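Subject: Interface between my chains keeps coming out wrong

I've been trying for a while to get a sensible model of this assembly. When I model each chain on its own everything looks fine, but I need the whole thing in one frame so I can look at the contacts. Pasting all components below, labels as-is. Any help appreciated, I'm running out of ideas.
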Amino acid sequence: MYKYPTWKYILVMAVLAYAVIYSLPNFYNTYPSIVAKTFDSKDITEADLLALSEESSLTFKGVNRNNIFFESIDDQLSAYNILTKLKSYSFTLSNYNHIPKWLDSINAQPISLGLDLKGGVHFLLQIDNQNVKKSRLNKLESNLRNYLIDNGIRYNSTVSEADKVTFKLIETSIDSKILNTLSDIFSDYEISSRKTDEGIAIVANLSEESITNDVKAAMQKNLTILRSRVNELGVSQPIIQRQGKDRIIVQLPGLQDSTRAKNILGSTATLEFRLTKGSSDDWVASQTIGTNTVSESILYKSKDGSPVLLSRNVIASGKDIEGANSGFDSQTNQPAVFVNLSSMGASNMLETTSRNIGNKMAVVFVEEDKNQVINIATIREAFSKRFQITGLDLQEAKDLAILLRSGSLSAPMSIIEERTVGPSLGSENIISGRDSMLLGMILVVLFMFIYYKKFGVIANIALIVNILIITATLSLFQATLTLSGIAGIVLTVGMAVDANVLIYERIREEILNGNSPNASIGAGYNKAFSTISDANITTLIAAIALLTIGTGVVKGFAVTLVIGILSSMFTAIVGTRALVSIIYENRSNKGLSI
Amino acid sequence: MFRLIKDINIKFMSMTKAPILLSSLLIIVSLLSISVKGFNFGIDFSSGYIVQLNFTNQVSVLQIQEKLAGSGLSDSTVQLYGSSNDVLIKLKDEETFQKTNINNQLIKIFADEKFEIIKLEYVGAQVGSELREKGEWAMLIALFSILIYVAMRFEFIYGLGAITALIHDVIITLGVFSIFDLTFDLSVLAAILAVIGYSLNDSIVVFDRVRENNIVLRKMPIKDVLDKSINQTLSRTLVTSLTTLLVVISLLIFGGDAVKNFSIAMLLGIIIGTYSSIFIASTSLSYFGIKRPEQS
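Reply #2:
Try treating it as a single job with all components included. I did that and got this:
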């Protein structure tokens, strides 16, 4: 009989070793953990962490590198609350896999679970292109106006449209030199002149390219800001990724409070500091008699809805704030935000406060079109760089400090897709996936055993190795396993035996045609090969077409399907052949158990 | 040897009328339903919110509906989900949610209840239509690539036969989803593409045998060649469909709601695909006409 080549045995053994080793990490326990990092990115030793245990009188399940791990999530969360107050390191919640060092050293890690399996939030954010355009246009208008005024070019009116600004001049002609200078100064825009009914107008066009550049720059800034905001949420292994020209994906695994995350991520909130100008009586007076105090001030609302009149001049705003922390006022013990101003903001603040001792200053919370005065205090002494803001509750103070630290988004972003899975649903999904896989396996394995006897057992061994290969490959490439991915694996279980069914049916036919067992085996494998590859390649084509859609649900399914098809071809054709050869090759067989 | 089917010789090619009639009827009904009634698109394709809430206290659908309507959200569907603590709410995409996020709105609407968000899915209108477009493209690309592959490996006629069977499967599966108002979402699209690949397997196995027999049994009339090929591969076709059905049924039983629609689509696809690979694919081969090897 035809001898099965040695290199194929070696190949099968190598693949088997790969499958076993790289799926091993999935069989070790995973513990909830806390990752510690120094603020200056120095290394942390395990001794440092054990010292923490002493300091906080907490008991850890164990430590590894910069990981502290715990028996339960409750232990982890209560320890997190205590540790973060120590402020010796920055802490993030995470999961620690208690795998042996040798596995770790060959980069063998457990499969990373998708958000639908471990709970968490997925956001797709889109930058507001119109807003970017609008702010660019506003800047252009004010720059151009300043230039015209400075150079004594008088104009009647300005019109600002979708992508251009028009200044209608009083003069009826314009020197081409002026136009050339304008073009040089405002080189990002297309400057031209246009005759109108009344005279001549200067038109500044925003080019498509400059808007694209603006969006690019705004995206870059927003990405940085979102990263720093996400870091403040204390989520382990968050993903913040740019998608396409104007979108950002944010994934926060294991997040408990999606409400807060959404409020913080999308917030364009910032602060403004203004002096009060006029009292509410003035406002009432202006409403009834029409005094003119009000024309120099702007009407705001305070938290309780009462009217407040503030000066039109801003002393300092969010962009002048360099640092912010939340804490408590040392005297009143109220929640407070401690603010650090930049040198520009500080000198402005010093100048204003020293001239206005005894007057009142207001802190305005600004978010898009909503403004709210959160605090009004009397200036008792001049101050510049550092000061504190009260008038918020603890959570508000914490969130505001985060927003001030990260800076404000350079253009608003809106959520255009969201998938939130609570932690309880995540673990439910894991159980669903596991159970359906187990039942599917049991049914198929039983059927194959009953229908094909010993050859059925061989196919079943191949099936189990196939699952191991899929697991190992997903682990090695750290592909994310989702529930739909599990569905893909379950489906592979049903379809993987197809190759063996084709081979075995062919062997049976050969035997029924009166061929010898060994010849039938050879013929079965050889004749079925092209059919098997044709059938699998077409499924592969469909799976790859699915990959082009590229979205979470579909992608997970397609990826496991592709891996499953490839590995099942190997196990069903090369793998089972090796086993069959070991059993049947060196003896004369009277019949086959098929 | 334990065999489901023993030495049979069913004359499939002499009983093509009933399957053709049945399939035509199913296709006409499906197409009618798809064009007149359309699909019950899930939020993946239609945009909107699905929120699953777990209330600490028991609630009723009416109570929830009243609270939503009180906040101007009357255009919503509410259903209990497993227990009277769990509620599934579907909402249209409202502009107010964009400004102050939906979580804050929910907290406001159900201010006097304690609840936890179990699941929240939102797809914006733009993303929804993009997904639909991508889905349509994926389906077309898959069908077209398969046509090319089969035409290359076999002959063009076989490719045509395979695609006929495939389009038949896809239309009827889509038809069932339309007729019975089953939710059509991304996972269903994934299932249909998987079915395209899978049901083609069956046709290819038969075609492979046809090609082989067509050469070996060159004197046999083509109808008999087709019959023989189907009969020879019949037990394989049924065994494979059975093992795949077993796993899909276990997905349907244990997989939970997230894969329910997927499993239903797979189940339908496998059954229809098996039927079409036996009755439709080969029939269309004889209809389109296969080249016979030269008689010597």
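Reply #3:
Confirming on my end. The mean pLDDT of chain A is 85.
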